[in-house]
Amino acid sequence: MSGGNQTRGDMTGAQSLLGTMMACGVDACFANPGTSELHLVAALQTEERVRSVLCLFEGVATGAADGYSRMKGKPAATLLHLGPGMANGWANLHNAKKAKTPLINLVGEHATWHLPLGASLTSDLEGLSASISDWTKVTKTSSDVGADMAEAYQKSMAKGGQIATLILPANTTWETGGVVGSPLPPEPLNQISSAEIEKAAAILTSGRRVAILTTGPSLVGEGREACTRIAAKTGAKMFCNGLNRQMERGAGRMEFTRLSGWGQVTLEVLAKFDDLIIVGTGLPVLSFAHPEFESVLVPEGVEVTKLASAEDDVTGVFVALSDAVGAPAESDVEKLLTKRTEYDLVTGPLTADAIGRAINKFMPEGAIISDESGTGGAGHYPITGGAIPHDILFLTGGSIGQGLPVALGAAIACPDRKVINLQADGSAMYTLQALWSIAREKCDVTVVMFSNRQYGILMRSLGQYGISGLPNRVPDLFDLSNPDLQWAKLAEGMGVEGHTCDTAEDFNRIFEDCMGRKGPQLIDAVI
Amino acid sequence: MSGGNQTRGDMTGAQSLLGTMMACGVDACFANPGTSELHLVAALQTEERVRSVLCLFEGVATGAADGYSRMKGKPAATLLHLGPGMANGWANLHNAKKAKTPLINLVGEHATWHLPLGASLTSDLEGLSASISDWTKVTKTSSDVGADMAEAYQKSMAKGGQIATLILPANTTWETGGVVGSPLPPEPLNQISSAEIEKAAAILTSGRRVAILTTGPSLVGEGREACTRIAAKTGAKMFCNGLNRQMERGAGRMEFTRLSGWGQVTLEVLAKFDDLIIVGTGLPVLSFAHPEFESVLVPEGVEVTKLASAEDDVTGVFVALSDAVGAPAESDVEKLLTKRTEYDLVTGPLTADAIGRAINKFMPEGAIISDESGTGGAGHYPITGGAIPHDILFLTGGSIGQGLPVALGAAIACPDRKVINLQADGSAMYTLQALWSIAREKCDVTVVMFSNRQYGILMRSLGQYGISGLPNRVPDLFDLSNPDLQWAKLAEGMGVEGHTCDTAEDFNRIFEDCMGRKGPQLIDAVI
């Protein structure tokens, strides 16, 4: 076959896939292909309306698709090679799944007759996919490819966002008989009854002290605005998960308070309320169990109302609730909106606080922060809250190695916006290959690497679990300092301009410069 | 808890795990731990008899465990963090599984009561493990940890080598009541009946032209010697898979001919025989299906005898067969043994042939080659066959990103032997984090990076599938040259001395120097 246009009868499965992708509006594919995906590659490379981005590791592809989809609100595709390819992408699919990001995996498989023969790359791809995908389908024939792709799109957009995986045996892509699939109608979101809305509204207007916990669509656009009105009208306090898909933040927006998964703090915060209404997420729980503490972080005496799950119409709930409490659109919310707060830059040793100040000062409006700053960088957060309006994307599933790929995907999705990746060094190592794609695609990404040269979160955990008596203060298994990672060299090795600094004044100067021009940069911030 | 010795009643599950590992002889653990494995880390860090090696990505840990186990003939352990950790290690577990390498995964999981609560790192770990492991068990209580570990060891050594995965809920590691498990008796290998051995011997001595296809234990030690005697006595031709766990090669050893998974060549080679006897592997098949070719690579007219599978006593089969054909130990095999063949070094443009000559000349006796040289480096193979005795380890499952981790593990297993990693650049990117562990552990590894800056195997496939008409000769999705990866910088960024060269004379000089001293080195061979 060649990649050119052909008549319908001649259309290969691969060509029908591309046609269906375009019909559904899937316009980006983050790819790490192999021999079983050759015909998909041939179709992709002759179709400029779908942006193909080569990733040198599949965890980059899935994380980038997640970042793209978060910013676009519709799925990007990945192109993965057999079981190993999907496995390499699994960890960032986990993050996307927890984020409820719509995402479509196109995974090549051996031809139908070849699969039982046990060739070296044969594996349990279907079982693997089932362990992470919300929906998996194995295409049977080339004539099914288009319809299956349309279904994958529909499923990815269902229930608030899902991981849809379409497994394509190689012969279904090279055989003719392909038919472009028609986009399917969206599956309607589950609606919350007006009786339940009224019940929640009654709690909110009862004079009791009410906290609302949410995430996902409530933190952007219409959902965020409805939440703001509800809080302004009723005095309810708005909380969100610690880890959220996308949050519109900064001056002119209400600050949602993130609940920590680290226990005591969350219990103390929530103890000040009579009621906790949960919308679009689950009960607050510890990130990890602890021998001495309850896993569920709801203080005694707090009444919990589970109003909606992540699969329900979360935005609709808040819009309905804002009406029910008498806070319709155009209500006055001014008092709750964050004011632009400027901080003086500092000099001296480099800290997350110092970095936060520089970000606050120099970040351009509409920037997108991909935040995997970890223990070393968390100190930026209170300071960046008062910056000019921006978006911030979090490590939703706790599976480290998401920040760089998400930055790549967000930059492809929003080429006119500056992307800042606040990145912990240990986490960055899982998917550092993203730097190469960032360089190749000339993405406007500035990476701030918080180099504390240890698994800081595990050091913190040691204390929390009361583990002592180990031979070294930093156990070898948590220590990244021997040898030190040289991030500027790693960046340059993949075509990204690299800088290193260990004073605030150097950081300030370099960061200001990065904000003032376009293109990929990495600052190794040794803290 | 502290890591010190405690009486039996006080022993934690984690401590009982370590005690059982030592009782079974598991003396290396390639680790990438998290909070759910803290107590296992504490136990490991206070026990010097188990070598703990920190890996900055789990695919490095599983690949290194594979390399270690291949050289030791007994399992190393990995220590992995929850579902994402196991997923990141999956691809190299696939390679280990195809190699039939005994390997034990210790995977931390949320505490038993915490798992149903949906904390952010909750996932279908059991389903994931089932998709790759030969044996999976979830430990129920701290008092079971020791016995479960002993069973994991037994299962890893069963059926010729298996992937055994023990999932350890965090509370089973921190709770006391641990009991060191007693090593279990090995599960006996399935024996092939003497009637079947006699039948095969009859074929071998019938005067018909016989090919034998094998892999695994037949390529080392006793198995290799028996194969050599059979070939010398009967004139049978010994073939092995293209991708093998470990092969003893070089002067003084018989050369097994590797069968390619690329079709036509294999059919032509096998057409010269009347019989094909298969021992310890499957039918030769194409690596990937092709629209126009049969997947099974057995020419018409060749009689196939499946004598033993990889789960049977493969070494025992060859020893019995050598007796049955009248070729007992001490038979004369001299005529079949490879002679030391020296090649002149060349100058000029750098090629795989030129590199093979330098390896042939300078490689020290007993070196271990971790071969993931791919399309760019395959040219070394005919030349290194005549080198002094060495071992060569292959990319057994075709899942790329194995060469560097296997080199790490082999170097830890055999600290007195030089390890040479012949590495394709595209493949290296999947697990380049191995370089950091190689530097930290001061491994005696020289990496030769064959930088052709493309997915060469996919370029070859394009031709084989007759795909043409794409906009660029090297499609963007196969092209690693924009920007070029700078491997010397990537190496130095992780603490490994890096060199770059693009002429044979430069390579010869640098490689000779690397062979003459110890320690980690990377040569970016731009071909």
Summarize the structure.
The structure is a homodimer of 527-residue chains. The first copy, chain A, is α/β, with parallel strands linked by helices.
Structure in words:
The structure is a homodimer of 527-residue chains. Chain A has 20 helices and 18 strands. Chain A folds into 3 domains: 8-174, Rossmann fold (3-Layer(aba) Sandwich), CATH 3.40.50.970; 194-336, TPP-binding domain (Rossmann fold, 3-Layer(aba) Sandwich); 352-526, Thiamin diphosphate (ThDP)-binding fold, Pyr/PP domains (Rossmann fold, 3-Layer(aba) Sandwich), CATH 3.40.50. Chain A is globular and about 65 Å long. In chain A, helix 9 links the parallel strand 7 and strand 8 (237-240). Chain A has 527 residues and is an alpha/beta fold. Mean pLDDT of chain A is 96; it is low at 1-7. Chain A starts with 12 loop residues before the first helix and ends with a strand. At the A-B interface, helix 2, helix 4, helix 5, helix 7 and helix 17 of A face helix 2, helix 4, helix 5, helix 7 and helix 17 of B.
